[in-house]
Design brief:
The chain is an all-alpha fold. The protein has two domains: 228 residues, Citrate Synthase, domain 1; 102 residues, Cytochrome p450-Terp, domain 2 (Orthogonal Bundle), CATH 1.10.230.10. Helix content is 55%, strand content 3%. It contains 17 helices and three strands. Strands 1-2-3 form a three-stranded antiparallel sheet. A hairpin with a 2-residue loop joins strand 2 and strand 3. Helix 7 packs antiparallel against helix 17, helix 8 crosses helix 9 and helix 11 packs across helix 17. The longest helix is centred in the C-terminal third of the chain and has 22 residues. The protein is globular, with a radius of gyration of 22 Å. Bound molecules: coenzyme A. The site of coenzyme A has 14 residues, from loops.
């Protein structure tokens, strides 16, 4: 086989075939199994989209009813898992807990089925169902509050808010939370998804694949930009401060969080939808302060970048932190929410990887030394 050109970070390298997701960066379009994400966000709920990702087709009414029932019945956390969350060091990040919990959960499933390399993962819905309960439990224990049992009558997003706050969200808030999960559910061969596929390619379990993917998502170059957007909004404080703040940030070569994308060279379609949610929530809470600051950041930043011939648009993280904040969610849970959503995409990729598996084993371009003479221990400095 001919030597391939080295591409740092595998940028531009095609690392596999997939039917799950198409990101059209030029047109600013995102598709899950061929369906534009804006249509899914407008019409489906998270469980329906999860079914689409796991089975490659939209469910009919009966299939959706059974699937929702199955996921909802897996939401409750077993007592030992709850004790583990309670005992987890309080100063840990919830992403560290999530990663550990997935391994712990794998001990509570039927080993013969779930740990077999041929397990379809479709029967293994604990990861999808229980991540919101785990994140909510961790948050409540960290704040000296009691764990709240899940409810089977609520959507995935609404139940998460219920378990987090102990107050049933109204229809708008429950729907917005659920639809934010849809928008974060899948995004092709990003770092965490690729991690999941690499682990799956060794015929490891889907629990090991998901746990590795969570570790990958934890890194600040992947998940976590929306947390930094909210830190930026707080630092700016008022709309009048936007221009001087941005001028200084750009002079200091600081990156403006939530702006720009490696793949999208047009508006990220998810940011357009999430902006709508932020407008809805800002009006409802009669608090447009974050929205006003973000819009001014977008306007001034784009003006500055266009002067340099660099059209740069908001990405998915630009408005989502402000949406979560208005939903009463603290910023250390933003990346865990990403995991709550993306676990559906990871499982879809694990299934697809297993169907046409080839072990991932790239080569390294060796740049070290060769044929060095052996040195006795006493001769080494
Ligand atoms: C996502 C990101 C890493 C993509 O970077 P990239 O692939 O270099 O993007 P581009 O090639 O389009 O960048 C073109 C230029 O604009 C600059 N640029 C891009 N996004 C920028 C940002 N948010 N703030 C300041 N400058 C930015 C780049 O540094 C580059 O400048 P250069 O030509 O002087 O090197 C980058 O946009 C970024 O760091 N954004 C902020 C973090 C963020 O929101 N991450 C979540 C992504 S979903």
């Amino acid at each position: 086989m001919a030597e391939m050109a080295y591409s740092p970070g595998l940028e531009g390298v095609i690392a596999g075939e997939s039917k799950i997701c198409k990101v059209d960066g030029e047109k600013g379009m995102l598709y899950y199994y061929g369906y534009p994400v804006k249509d899914l966000a407008a019409n489906a709920d998270f469980e329906e989209v999860t079914y689409l990702l796991l089975y490659g087709k939209l469910p009919n009414a009966g299939e959706l009813k059974d699937f929702s029932k199955r996921i909802r019945s897996c939401r409750a956390i077993k007592a030992p898992v709850l004790r583990m969350i309670q005992d987890f060091p309080r100063n840990s990040h919830p992403m560290e807990l999530l990663q550990a919990v997935i391994s712990f959960l794998s001990g509570y499933v039927d080993h013969k089925i779930e740990h077999s390399p041929t397990c379809s993962c479709r029967s293994t819905l604990h990861q999808i169902a229980q991540l919101p309960s785990v994140v909510a439990a961790f948050h409540r224990f960290s704040n000296g509050l009691e764990y709240i049992e899940p409810r089977e009558d609520l959507s995935h997003g609404a139940n998460f808010l219920w378990q987090l706050k102990g107050v049933e969200p109204d229809t708008d808030e429950g729907e917005i939370m659920d639809k934010c999960l849809i928008l974060h559910a899948e995004h092709s061969f990003n770092a965490s998804t690729f991690t999941a596929r690499v682990v799956a390619s060794t015929q490891s379990t889907c629990y090991c694949s998901i746990s590795a993917a969570i570790g990958s998502l934890f890194g600040s170059l992947h998940g976590g930009a929306n947390e930094k957007v909210m830190a930026m909004v707080n630092e700016i404080g008022r709309v009048e401060n936007v221009r001087p703040w941005l001028e200084k940030a750009l002079a200091d070569k600081r990156k403006v969080m939530g702006m720009g994308h490696r793949v999208y060279k047009a508006k990220d379609p998810r940011s357009v939808i999430i902006e709508d949610y932020l407008q809805t929530l800002s009006k409802k809470h009669q608090d447009t302060s974050s929205y006003d600051i973000l819009k001014e950041v977008e306007r001034v930043f784009r003006e500055k970048m266009e002067e340099k011939g660099k059209p740069i648009y908001p990405n998915v993280d630009f408005f989502s932190g402000a949406v979560y904040t208005l939903l009463g969610i603290p910023s250390n849970l933003f990346t865990p929410i990403f995991a709550i959503a993306r676990v559906s995409g990871w499982l879809a990729h694990i299934i697809e990887q297993r169907e046409h598996n080839r072990l991932y084993r790239p080569k390294a371009l060796y740049v070290g030394e060769m044929d060095k003479p052996w040195q006795k221990l006493e001769d080494r400095t």
